[in-house]
TrEMBL record:
Ranges where the RIIa domain occurs: 47-75
Gene3D superfamilies: cAMP-dependent protein kinase regulatory subunit, dimerization-anchoring domain
Protein name per the record: RIIa domain-containing protein
A Pfam family assignment: RIIa
CDD domains according to UniProt: DD_RIIAD1 (cd22971)
């Protein structure tokens, strides 16, 4: 099992050519969809920038705990206002 906080790169060589192409197309579509979302919601860049600035200023030992506290302060009620995933574009 991988260590906590350590990413592992997936070995895509075990996929056949058709599976690799499907994976490539999926990655491209995902990047395009993500870019569209970020362009439609410029506040994401502000939130991420503010969060990153706080991390670099405070340099917490446990970034995950810090992130939980940081974003909980933005929404103290804990309510999720996620609109859901819509493919009606």
């Amino acid at each position: 099992m991988a260590e906590k906080g350590v990413e592992t790169k997936l070995d895509t060589s075990v996929l056949n050519a058709e599976q690799q192409e499907k994976l490539r197309q999926f990655k491209i579509k995902t990047r395009i969809d993500n870019e569209k979302y970020i362009r439609a919601h410029p506040e994401v860049e502000v939130l991420v920038g503010d969060f990153l600035r706080e991390i670099l200023l405070k340099r917490p030992a446990d970034i995950r705990e810090f992130a939980g506290d940081y974003f909980s302060r933005l929404n103290p009620s804990g309510d999720s206002k996620e609109e859901g995933n819509s493919d009606a574009e």
